[in-house]
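Data card: per-record layout.
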Amino acid sequence: MSSIDSRLRRLEESGDSCPECGLSATARRPIAVVYPDDPDKSFDGDPYERCPECGRPLYTVLNVVYEGEEGGGGLT
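The structure for this 76-residue chain is written out next.
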């Protein structure tokens, strides 16, 4: 059985929550605030970290953009 098949099987058996991180596709994640111009105020760690088991993001990332600066506007 491929790793994707076994991963999907485990997710389906667990009621859509990952056995590793405990999050489902619709679960709220902790917020990680990122200040590109002020790293001292930013989230400590990797805000874009994903669960190694299910591949879902562990955090909701907020990039702080000040007035007059162009924001990316994209989801990562």
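Known properties of this structure: The mean pLDDT is 81. The chain has one domain: 1-71.

See the next section for split statistics.
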